[in-house]
Every structure is written in C-alpha cells, then in structure tokens.
C-alpha cells in the first residue's frame, strides 16, 4: 500500500469514501510515523493514540453505514491539535508550566466542530508558550523542529511560531492537517517557514471559546494544511457562529471548496508599496514579483496601493497584545487550576507561582502590558495604539474600493536557526512585520508556499482579503498554488 | 522611555510576578528598548481619531435571562491544586 501519511486531506477523504483504506489504517499509519518521528521533531507534546484509534473505529462504522445517514465532512481523518485548544479530559497546557497537568472539563467549540464532523485526534501539538513567540523556542516542552534543512546542512531550523508544532507536523506528514491560532502571524509565519498553507480567517469567523486566550481582540483560530483545497475543507468545519463567544459572527459560512477552482480572471490584486521594506531578503522580493506575474498570467489585474500606516502596526501591536495578555493571564494565580508554589501568604503564593510558572518571554509581555495599562500611562500607550489601529484599518477600508485582495510576502526571510534571534526580543518581533497588520484590521489572511530560498528552504506569499471574504482569498491562493506547485521536504531525516 | 530598576520592581509587584535581582537588571534594559521602539507612534497624528473598540461592527446578541449551566462544583474544583468540600483552599487572608 502507498504511504497513507503522504496523502492530502482531500485525497484521504476521497480514499475513505471509495473504501480504498479504512480510517483505522490511515490513523495507524500516522501513529507509526509519529512514534518514529516525534523524537527528532518534537511536534507532539502529547500523543493520544488510544483515543485516536477509538475515534477511527467509530468513524469506520459511520463510513460503512448504509442508507441516508451521510458520514461527516471530515469523517475518519486524523488531525493534530495545537495545545492551545481545550480538549475535554485531555491535558491542555498552552505549552506553559503554569497550566501543569490541567485537564479541561470542556471542549473548545472549534475542536468540537471537528469531532462532530468525524475527525480523529492524534494528539496535542507544540507551540510557543501562550502563543507568544515566532520560533516555537519559548515552549516549556522545548522547541518543535522544522523538517526542512538548509541544503547540505544539518543545523536545526525553527518551524516558525507560535503554531510551530502544527506547521512542522503537517510538513513532516505527522498529521493530515492541524489546527492553529494567529494573534500577530502565528498561523501564516510558521506556514511560510515550512512550505505549508495557513489561513487566519476574519476576526469573528471562528469561535474563540475554549481556546487559551492571549490577546482577545486579535486571536483567531484557523487551519494549517498541505494544500489550499485542504485549508478550504478544514476551515469550512472550524468556522461558524457560537453563542458562547459573543464576538463570533452570526453569518452564513459559504461553501469554500465550491468556488475554489473558478480562476481569478478580472480579480483586482493590490500591491502595497509600503511593504518594500529595508531588510527584506532579495529572494523574498523576487518571489513577490514572481507572484505578481503569476496572478497577472492567470487573468488578474495588478494595482499599486498605499497602506500608509503599515510601519506603525508592529509597535502598536506590541502595546495592545501585551496589554490584553497581562489582563488575560491574571487568571493564573495558583488557586483554581495549574501550578501552585506555596508562599508565606496569599500574595506571596501568587508571586511565587507566577515566577515559577511563566517563562521569560511571557513575563516580559505581562510586564510590558502591566506597564502600559498602569496609572498615568494608559492614554499615552494603550489609547494611542488603539487610535493607530483605527488608522490601520482605515488604510485597508480605502484599499477595498480599488482592489479585491492584497498580495505581499509572508515573511521578510526564510526559516532561521535556533538561537539566531533569541538574544534580542525586538529582532524576533520583526518576524511578524508583514502579518500583524492583518490582525490589527481583523482581516482574513492566507500564506501559500511559493518558492524556495537559495538555501533550499521554503518561502511563502501572503494574500489579504476583505472581511468575511475568505472564499475569494482561497480562490486567489489556489491560483498561486497552481502556478508554484507544491513543496515537499526533500529528505525525511527524522524517520 | 527609560525604565529604571525600581520601576521594573513596581510593575512586577503589580503583575504579581516575583523577580530576582538578575532578572530585574535584565528586564530594565529589555523593557526600556521595547518602550523606546514603540515611542515612534508619537509621530502619528491621532487628533480626532476614535480609538478602536471593536474590529468587526456587530451588535452584541442577547438571550433570555435564564440559567443554562451550573451545578458542577466537582468539575470546577477538579483541577485545583488544593480544595476541600468543593471550595478552593488558599492561605489565610484575614487575621
């Protein structure tokens, strides 16, 4: 039999329906691949093979059922789940020591949607602690490793972050697809660095209920997948209104796969001049021009646009996100769940617990957030940043009069080595320079693999869409995938 | 914006995170450089600009004011580091 782990989500779905193999076979193939590969890649922080086999057997029964009852949209398909999603009775840590052995009494809405559609969970995937990071190096479990290596080298490269476990697991075929979350680029940047597809939908498209909160006005869930079609299939199931999240939007989720192959003739593509920054690698710039040509060849029209406040998105983000994080993370006090380090009184217990439970980057952000929200500084920092955010969104609102999607690189450069950017927090923050505007404006964004660097590692292009127009975004992304082809890791050194 | 060590300690106290002397020294530089970097926002004219309160213009939904959940004390304390009779146990607060 062919290697079932190499299939895409769509191919595996078709194979199950045609009875070419069972979900149990498909799931066991993945469990074996994880057993072999996880020591080298560190993508799963918790493996749940027994749970997966139970779900696969149940899915096989539903697939075999005769009559009217149709199988689910993702029936029998094994997925990896970022450890930021609460899974009922299954340890959820956000890759922080402070959550310790936390076993949620409830399931996140997004993962519940996946199980309702028949999907199978292989385990919980590595990420930066509380999703704060761009390289997966802040995880309490140690970093996930990028399956890609530089040509002729064996140095370990980062898989991006925060959803580094998700991106690396999908690139290494250790799951068919994975859930991820994106606050400033945490789906798109890791997708770009691993040759995978990652879409962050419009704020409000997916429920945030049961996802460990980082910055609530920016956080969104989305999938990381092998192809654009897979992203459409998985987002379809993840999305939808949820009464338990008052910011989730009660709007129809269109059939994303239905319009995917309709082509982009006449689509108006914007190219923002402010994204041609100093410090962008030559190859990222060349690839961007290549992307413009591909879309032109497919019948789109190209328009230069201006997003004048682009430069201010990252500094504004580093006020708003830490401010919201400092408030959200106040709940970790050693009283109701997670770690407790006993102190001499209650306040001392809080302080000891949080000192022992949080890693350095989380502490840094909580402190920045506390500072910008503290008496006397609120107007100068937080209020100012929220005003700048209004201007950033206004830039895009103006652009939508002229264009339907915006094309940019996803990151200024390809995957870097461990330790290369950990010395200077600001250096790491710059990883999100092209992605963070999208979160600030609440827009949907997708990263599609588009080429390889001279080192032989992947680079991605980002498309940004109008609010709730993920369908157009996916269709445009498909045109890039059609032109660029898919990118496979040349050597399975971990297996 | 330079943050001195005393300010770092004050913020850490507000954030309820105990920091060591070495951490305080390191954070002094790190927080100062991050705050210096965000200073560039001052260049932006935000006169007459409303601060963003929600990125998607939706009105909050309302539902009937009825109890839809509850009676699960055991589940709520199940993850507590210390509990007794469905209560969380903390060090004595009031003498």
Q: Can you give me a brief rundown of this structure?
A:
Chain A has 495 residues and is of the alpha/beta class. Helices cover 37% and strands 12% of the residues of chain A. Chain A has helices at 9-17, 23-41, 49-64, 109-116, 164-171, 188-194, 228-238, 282-297, 313-328, 346-357, 360-373, 379-399, 425-429, 436-440, 470-484, and strands spanning 44-47, 78-82, 120-125, 178-182, 197-200, 220-225, 268-272, 301-305, 405-409, 445-452, 458-465.
Strand-helix topology:
The complex is a heterodimer of chains A (495) and B (95).
Chain A: H1 9-17, H2 23-41, E1 44-47, H3 49-64, E2 78-82, H4 109-116, E3 120-125, H5 164-171, E4 178-182, H6 188-194, E5 197-200, E6 220-225, H7 228-238, E7 268-272, H8 282-297, E8 301-305, H9 313-328, H10 346-357, H11 360-373, H12 379-399, E9 405-409, H13 425-429, H14 436-440, E10 445-452, E11 458-465, H15 470-484
Parallel strand pairs in A: 2-3, 7-8, 7-9
Antiparallel strand pairs in A: 1-3, 4-6, 5-6, 5-10, 9-11, 10-11
Chain B: H1 5-14, H2 21-38, H3 73-77, E1 83-84, E2 87-88
Antiparallel strand pairs in B: 1-2
Helix pairs in contact in B: 1-2
What do you see in this structure?
The complex is a heterodimer of chains A (495) and B (95). By secondary structure, chain A is α/β, with parallel strands linked by helices. Chain A has a single domain, classed as Amidase signature (AS) domain (Amidase signature (AS) enzymes, Alpha-Beta Complex), CATH 3.90.1300.10. Chain A is 37% helix and 12% strand. An eight-stranded mixed β-sheet of chain A has the order 4-6-5-10-11-9-7-8, sandwiched between helices. In chain A, helix 9 packs across helix 12. Chain A is globular. The model of chain A has no long low-confidence stretch (mean pLDDT 96). Chain B has 95 residues and is mostly helical. Chain B has a domain of 38 residues: Orthogonal Bundle (Histone, subunit A). A two-stranded antiparallel ribbon of chain B has the order 1-2. In chain B, strand 1 and strand 2 form a beta hairpin. Chain B is flat and about 55 Å long. Chain B starts with a helix and ends in a 7-residue tail after the last strand. At the A-B interface, helix 9, helix 10, helix 11 and helix 12 of A face helix 1, helix 2 and helix 3 of B.
């Amino acid at each position: 039999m062919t290697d079932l782990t190499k299939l895409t989500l769509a191919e595996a779905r078709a194979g199950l329906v045609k009875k070419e193999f069972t979900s149990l076979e498909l799931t066991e193939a993945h469990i074996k691949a994880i057993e072999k590969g996880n020591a080298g890649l560190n993508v799963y922080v918790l493996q749940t093979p027994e749970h997966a086999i139970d779900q696969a057997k149940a899915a096989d029964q539903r697939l075999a059922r005769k009559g009217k009852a149709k199988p689910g949209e993702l029936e029998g398909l094994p997925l990896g789940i970022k450890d930021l999603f609460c899974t009922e009775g299954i340890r959820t840590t956000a890759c922080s020591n402070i959550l310790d052995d936390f076993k949620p009494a409830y399931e996140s809405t997004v993962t519940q949607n996946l199980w309702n559609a028949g999907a199978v969970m292989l385990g919980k995937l590595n990420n930066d602690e509380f999703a704060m990071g761009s390289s997966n190096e802040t995880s309490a479990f140690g970093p996930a490793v990028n399956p890609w290596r530089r040509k002729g080298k064996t140095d370990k490269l980062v898989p991006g972050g925060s959803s580094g476990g998700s991106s690396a697991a999908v690139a290494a075929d250790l799951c068919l697809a994975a859930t991820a979350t994106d606050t400033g680029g945490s789906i798109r940047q890791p997708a770009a660095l691993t040759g995978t597809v990652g879409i962050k939908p419009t704020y409000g498209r997916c429920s945030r209920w049961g996802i460990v909160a980082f910055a609530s006005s920016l956080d969104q869930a989305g999938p990381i997948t092998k192809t654009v079609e897979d992203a459409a299939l998985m987002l379809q199931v993840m999305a939808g209104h949820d009464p338990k999240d008052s910011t989730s939007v009660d709007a129809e989720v269109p059939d994303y796969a239905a319009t995917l192959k309709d082509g982009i003739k006449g689509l108006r593509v914007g190219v923002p001049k402010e994204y041609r920054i100093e410090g962008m690698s030559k190859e990222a710039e060349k690839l961007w021009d290549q992307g413009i040509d591909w879309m032109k060849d497919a019948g789109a029209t190209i328009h230069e646009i201006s997003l004048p406040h682009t430069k201010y998105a990252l500094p504004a983000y580093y006020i708003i996100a830490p401010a919201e994080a400092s408030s959200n993370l106040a709940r970790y006090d050693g009283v109701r769940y997670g770690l407790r380090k006993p102190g001499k009184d209650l306040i001392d217990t809080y302080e000891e617990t949080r000192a022992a439970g949080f890693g350095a980057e989380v502490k840094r952000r909580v402190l920045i957030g506390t500072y910008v929200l503290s008496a006397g500084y609120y107007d100068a920092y937080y209020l100012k940043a929220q005003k700048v955010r209004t201007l950033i969104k206004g830039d895009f609102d103006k652009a939508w009069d002229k264009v339907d999607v915006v094309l940019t690189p996803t990151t200024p450069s390809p995957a870097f080595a461990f330790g290369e950017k950990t010395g200077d927090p600001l250096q790491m923050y710059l990883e999100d320079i092209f992605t963070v505007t999208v979160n600030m404006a609440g827009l949907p964004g997708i990263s599609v693999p588009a080429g390889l660097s001279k080192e032989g590692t992947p680079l991605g292009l980002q498309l940004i869409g109008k609010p709730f127009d993920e369908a157009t975004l996916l269709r445009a992304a498909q045109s890039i995938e059609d032109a660029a082809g898919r990118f496979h890791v040349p050597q399975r050194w971990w297996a | 914006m330079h943050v001195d060590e005393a300010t770092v300690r004050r913020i850490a106290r507000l954030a309820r995170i105990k920091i060591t002397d070495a951490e305080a020294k390191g954070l002094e530089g790190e927080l100062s450089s991050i705050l210096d970097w965000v200073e560039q926002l001052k260049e932006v004219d935000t006169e007459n600009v409303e601060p963003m309160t929600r990125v998607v213009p939706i009105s909050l939904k309302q539902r009937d004011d009825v109890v839809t959940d509850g009676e699960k004390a055991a589940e709520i304390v199940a993850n507590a580091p210390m509990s007794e009779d469905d209560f969380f146990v903390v060090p004595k607060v009031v003498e």
